[in-house]
Amino acid sequence: MNFKTADLCDKFSAELQIVEPVFRRFGGRVQFAGTAATIKCFEDNSRVKEAVGEPGQGRVLVVDAGGSMRCAMLGDLLAKQAADNGWAGVVVYGCVRDVKEMGEFNLGVIALASLPLRSEKKGEGQRDIPVRIPGARIQPGDWVYVDEDGMVVAGRQLVA
Q: Is the pLDDT of residue 33 over 90?
């Protein structure tokens, strides 16, 4: 899929949610897009582990981790699994770790920061519900577009 988020903003601004520029890039793929699968969790990545173990089918996993800067919600093992299972990317409103290795995978990853401490695994969190990240409320099935200029969200596919 060939797109530029700047061009999408020029052509479809009335339809888009523009995500605030708080995310950094960590994955091996800079540009990625797909329908959103959503997770809401806080300092427990159990639902993330479940999701990346399933067929991604070119989707983007959006993880609302509440902006926590106290532990990582995605590391190299889960990122590798996501890439191997066909996820286009992962957006983490929180932290990631193992970023050197993560940069080698064919997976887009953006997050607030890197932090070496892993999260708890207590089986908590919710999947496939609306989530909020700075600048957007994302519903499962919304289209997420990420490139060097940022991230935008649309209620429908804008480019083929």
A: yes
